[in-house]
Amino acid sequence: RNSDHLPVILKVLNTALPTADKIRSFRNEYELVNKLSKLDCIISVYELISSQGFSVLLYEDIGGLSLAQYL
């Protein structure tokens, strides 16, 4: 992030014109992970950004392996 220079993982809602259900699901994911991130075993979600028809979740990057790297 530019504000504090922390590395982040971006999760993008992968459609330019998401349905109301997909937007609601993305927002619910943000709210749920935000509540669960108080636990040490859950990474933090920093914010949900919605701009110009796109929604992006900013997650904490802990420097782990991606699923593709793991497999």
Structure description:
This protein is α+β, with helices and mostly antiparallel strands and 71 residues long. The protein contains 2 helices and 3 strands. Strands 1-3-2 form a 3-stranded antiparallel β-sheet, with helices on one face. The termini are far apart. The model has no long low-confidence stretch (mean pLDDT 88).
Tell me which oligomeric state these chains represent.
single chain
In helices, the fraction of residues equals: 25-40%
> What value does the average pLDDT take?
88
Structural class: alpha+beta
Please provide the count of β strands.
3
The gross shape turns out to be: globular
Main sheet makeup: 3 strands, antiparallel
Count of DSSP-assigned helices: 2
For the biggest β-sheet, the strand order reads: 1-3-2
Q: How many angstroms does the end-to-end distance come to?
A: 28 Å
**Percent of sequence in beta strands:** 25-35%
Q: Provide the low-confidence segments as ranges.
A: none
Topology as a string of helices (H) and strands (E): EHEEH
**How big is the Rg?**
13 Å
Descriptive keywords:
alpha+beta, 30% helix, single chain, 2 helices, 71 residues, globular, 3-stranded antiparallel sheet
Give the topology, please.
Blueprint: E1 8-12, H1 20-36, E2 45-51, E3 54-60, H2 67-70
How is this structure best summarized?
With 71 residues, the protein is α+β, with helices and mostly antiparallel strands.
